[in-house]
Structure prediction request, 112 residues.
Amino acid sequence: MALPELAAVCPPALTFDKRTYSPWSDGRLHALLQARACGTLIVTGGETDVCVLATVLGAIDLGYRAIVVMDALCSSADETHDAVMTVYQHRYGQQVETVSAECLLDEWRDRL
Prediction:
């Protein structure tokens, strides 16, 4: 269930509840994004090495442009968080773009 505190500041975006590590398992998110003609995902969140990783890999499999905001991720395990960050930058460099929150916000400001 979505947090009411977030729902108030969410529009025009949507909230999406999931019950598994991957948001792609039941097809709802992919269908929602396709209906909105979304081709790029900006990924932030908790558990870099679990839920975020599942989200990023699924996005790649489905053909989305995946942008990972490096300083907007966290994990309860520093060692695996750091390892996955290295994988994003070095192993998946062709499939995943990595940026800082500041860089992303600057890019948006420049386009307004």
Notes: The beta strands are 40-46, 65-74, 96-99. DSSP finds five helices and three strands in the chain.
